[in-house]
Write a structure and sequence with these properties.
Structural class: alpha+beta
Helix content: 10-25%
Number of strands: 38
Distance between the termini: 27 Å
Strand content: 35-45%
Largest sheet: 8 strands, mixed
Number of helices: 10
Radius of gyration: 24 Å
Length: about 650
């Protein structure tokens, strides 16, 4: 091994360019056709998305929706398509359902352009499609005939939100998840099973309904019937962690399959179409994914009495999501990645004792060797009140360079705030780590993946605990000699950008600079302007309005903006309807008026989160240049 060159941290030449980190294809939602031989998935390419499929034995995939905009707009998207009986049913341009045959043929519109559909679910006999529908005011489950010959009908309404409709294999029952404001789906939600009636020559109607799981203080996720119709499975957190539950539809009993396990099966339903479990085609096995200390692994359980165990063929992957099982043939498919391996669509199957893992699609060219990238590790530290806080630490990594002393640090704060930084491939963290920065991804109290108590700790404490945990995490790495306490930056987007601004207002001088992407500065304006999905989110995070108006003002960075003294770079999309541009404009006005060093970049045509590769590239390069000037060269220089 050649001797590494001594060079200041943060100034290393990296094999990972901004083009590499800002580009790539987003892979999600693998799903099998009814015969088990065709696998479809969604590829996001910048601000475009296309449904791709590959039939077993075929060398090349086929793009089924080229020339059509695949996009769902309920929640933050998701639930864009379904595949069944040789057709893909997809959400086109956010406002109607369309269908396209796998074997070629034109796209056919199934519903009128009214409101926003999502999560299409074809019935077992292929005659009907149930789906989620929202128009910004009213949400419901709707149903339309599979040929689109008649107008859609409302099937279920009355709750504020619906998600994850699933048919019983005999087609006479439908399961779904519903919930009401002011809750979010991870606060309190209900799993309901409805019995359907089929009037002659007409669409099905709901005959009766019953609550199976969930309710006040309990969250449920993804109901799924077994292929033989006996079992109903879901993820629910009534035991403190999100566990796997199995309900016997014959005798009415319910069993927890993971009673002694820490870690969460469910994921927060920011989007429709969340998939964390799947029955095998013969109904004898149940696959599920679970998070633990930043790692999300695939497990399998033999039914009805087996104990779950790690699925060894995919055990080396640190992030396994979107599990799907073929109705026939025994194959499964997932999205898999690790800190040093970008996302892939992988299928697992084949005869014999050792299942074969086949790569169906890659998100990038994977030109980098693993040794060129950083290997993160879970870290923990203690907050001022004694609580344990979690995060992921990326040390600087290079085969060519090394530095002297502790490295500069970027503390990155995830959005949500009900979300999690995990061990999937993170191109932005690697971009900085391979240039000689240490990176800390903070899973502050309020994050998911560590149980319900950890998630709910942020209730009433948003802007306090998240900010305190970020500050304590930065100091912890500095105290451990893993970071230079005099050269630290804080970065985040959306709710993470809010935490960045809070840290800069309350702890001036601790961070040499901040990077804020579409961050929240005015909590009162956020509650007044945001979309229906999050219209009451702040009730639990801060308190209901108008009673808590004083607290909203107290914790809004805008009203303490004059306390920001450290350099800040801000990024904003001009079409952001979640955190409008006015939120960033107001902070910039204060910085400009007082002469605080700052940069402000507004991207035309971008919304909440940047989709276009050119926007993401520019954001990375501008952030790096800004942090180099204000962090690396702080004081006496590197």
């Amino acid at each position: 091994m050649t001797e590494r060159e001594l060079r200041p941290f943060g100034l290393w030449e990296s094999p990972l360019s901004a083009d590499d980190a800002g580009a790539g294809t987003g892979l999600s939602s693998p799903a099998f056709d009814s015969d088990g031989r065709t696998l479809a998935w969604l590829e996001r390419r910048g601000d475009q998305a296309v449904v791709v499929c590959r039939r077993q034995g075929e060398a090349a995939p086929v793009e089924l929706t080229r020339g059509h905009t695949v996009r769902a707009r309920v929640f933050y998207g998701g639930g864009e398509f379904a595949i069944a009986r040789g057709r893909v049913i997809f959400v086109e341009d956010g406002d109607h359902l369309s269908a396209v045959p796998l074997r070629g043929g034109g796209v056919r519109r199934l519903t009128p352009a009214f409101g926003h559909p999502a999560a299409p679910a074809p019935s077992p006999d292929g005659r009907w499609i149930a789906y989620v529908h929202g128009d910004g005011a009213t949400d419901r489950l709707a149903v339309v005939d599979a040929g689109g010959a008649n107008w859609p009908r409302s099937l279920v309404d009355g709750a504020d939100f619906y998600m994850q409709p699933a048919w019983h294999p005999r087609g006479r029952q439908l399961a779904w998840v519903e919930y009401d404001l002011p809750d979010m789906p991870w606060d309190s939600s209900r799993l309901v099973v409805g019995r359907l009636r089929f009037p002659a020559g007409a669409a099905p109607v709901l005959a009766e309904r019953r609550l199976v799981a969930g309710g006040e203080g309990q969250a449920v996720c993804q109901p799924e019937f077994s292929p033989d119709g006996r079992w109903l499975a879901w993820a629910g957190d009534e035991g403190g962690f999100s566990q796997l539950w199995l309900h016997d539809l014959e005798d009415g009993s319910t069993t927890c399959l993971t009673p002694d396990e820490d870690g969460d099966v469910a994921l927060p339903a920011w989007v429709q179409g969340v998939r964390v479990l799947a029955f095998s085609g013969d109904g004898r096995r149940l696959w599920f994914t679970r998070s633990h200390l930043g790692r999300r692994s695939l497990f399998v359980c033999d039914l009805p009495d087996g104990r779950p165990h790690l699925f060894e063929p995919l055990a080396d992957w640190a992030s396994v999501t979107h599990v799907a099982a073929a109705p026939r043939g025994g194959r499964i498919a997932v999205v898999a990645s690790s800190p040093r391996r970008p996302e892939r669509i992988c299928s697992v199957g084949g005869r014999g004792a050792e299942p074969r893992v086949t790569v169906q699609a890659r998100s990038s060219a994977e030109r980098l060797e693993a040794a060129d990238l950083s290997t993160p590790r879970p870290v923990r530290w203690t907050a001022a009140d004694g609580a344990v806080v979690h995060g992921l630490h990326y040390p600087p990594a290079s085969r060519r360079f090394e530095g002297a002393g502790p490295p500069p640090l970027i503390v990155d704060v995830h959005g949500g705030p009900t979300s999690q930084a995990d061990l999937r491939y993170d191109s932005e963290a690697q971009y900085f780590a391979t240039r000689g920065w240490a990176v800390l991804l903070v899973n502050y109290r309020g994050s998911t993946g560590y149980g319900r108590a950890y998630m709910t700790a942020l209730r009433g404490q948003w802007g306090v605990l998240d900010m305190e945990d970020v500050v304590a995490g930065a100091r912890h790495l500095a105290d451990e000699g893993l970071a230079d306490g005099g050269r630290m930056a804080v970065s985040g987007g959306s709710a993470g950008g809010y935490t960045v601004l809070r840290a800069l207002t309350l702890h001036p001088g601790l961070f040499a600079a901040g990077a804020c992407r579409y961050g929240i500065s005015d909590l009162l304006a956020l509650a007044d302007e945001t979309h229906k999905f999050e219209s009451r989110y702040t009730d639990s995070l801060l308190g209901p309005l108008p009673e808590a108006a004083g607290l909203y003002r107290e914790r809004s960075p805008l009203f303490a903006a004059d306390a920001i003294q450290d350099p800040v770079i801000l990024f904003q999309g001009d079409e952001d309807r979640v955190v409008p541009r006015s939120q960033s404009d107001a902070i910039v006005d204060s910085l400009r008026r007082r002469g605080v060093p700052h940069e402000y970049h507004v991207y035309e045509g971008e919304g909440h989160g940047f989709r276009r590769p050119e926007s993401r590239r520019h954001c990375l390069r501008a952030t790096e240049a800004f942090l180099r000037r204000h962090v690396l060269y702080r004081g006496d220089g590197p």
